[in-house]
From TrEMBL:
The lineage of its organism: Bacteria, Pseudomonadati, Pseudomonadota, Alphaproteobacteria, Hyphomicrobiales. One of its GO terms (molecular function) is ATP binding. The keyword Iron-sulfur does not apply. Keywords: ATP-binding, Cell membrane, Membrane, Nucleotide-binding, Translocase, Transport. Gene3D superfamilies: P-loop containing nucleotide triphosphate hydrolases. Residues 5-219 form the ABC transporter domain. The keyword DNA damage does not apply. This is ABC transporter ATP-binding protein. Belongs to the ABC transporter superfamily.
Amino acid sequence: MSTLVDIRKLHRSFGGPAVLDSIDLTMAPGEFVALLGRSGSGKSTLLRVLAGLDTAPAQKLELPVRRSVVFQEPRLLPWKSVIENVALGVRRADARTLATQALADVGLSHRVDAWPLTLSGGEAQRSALARALVREPKLLLLDEPFAALDALTRLRMHDLVFELWRKHHPAVLLVTHDVWEAVALADRILVLDQGRFIKEIRVDIDHPRRRDDPRTSRIEAELLKELGVEPLHA
Ligand SMILES: Nc1ncnc2c1ncn2[C@@H]1O[C@H](COP(=O)(O)OP(=O)(O)OP(=O)(O)O)[C@@H](O)[C@H]1O
């Protein structure tokens, strides 16, 4: 198996106890990994290190050069149109063409000239996804990108992310609180607790995955237990 991400003994603290404690993480090209964990377990810190937004000592830190991040908030520049936001930073003569294609990929062809403040929450996150994908990343980092969306929009975004992943096939690291999101999308799920991985589950189930499939239910229940959450209808 070739390796896209290879991290050994990554450590991060902010003066107190370790937030990331000797983390080992490898990812294959095109692999979809979800990262779950309670609040404060270190998920965003790990994602920020992978994105290059934070530095931390490690024995080994091998990452692809082309990486993109999508955060919980779309972080669009309000004084630029949607397409200008997407094309921003693409230093190629055909940046606008690429941005147009990326916006078509996320279903926003009709909003290319819109101002960010006129977008719905779902449209804004679609724009953020287009901005991330236009750079053709080898590694796409998603930090709770759908957490602020309503439940129905979130389900639609799951389908969209899956389609985009199938088309472009970047490796994806998805940080989420939503156990179903992880089970619906990921090849592999990691659970972080106090800066250490405490569980790894491979999800070997064909897409589209159904929530009423006993195999997904079993994995969901196992993860909820690991996170210390009692399912309401267990
Ligand atoms: N810049 C910082 N300075 C000091 N402490 C920090 C900093 N960034 C993160 N921390 C601390 O590191 C710990 C892990 O934070 P992190 O944001 O990675 O957790 P998380 O798992 O993403 O949480 P959540 O699910 O609530 O977003 C927390 O205790 C947090 O207070």
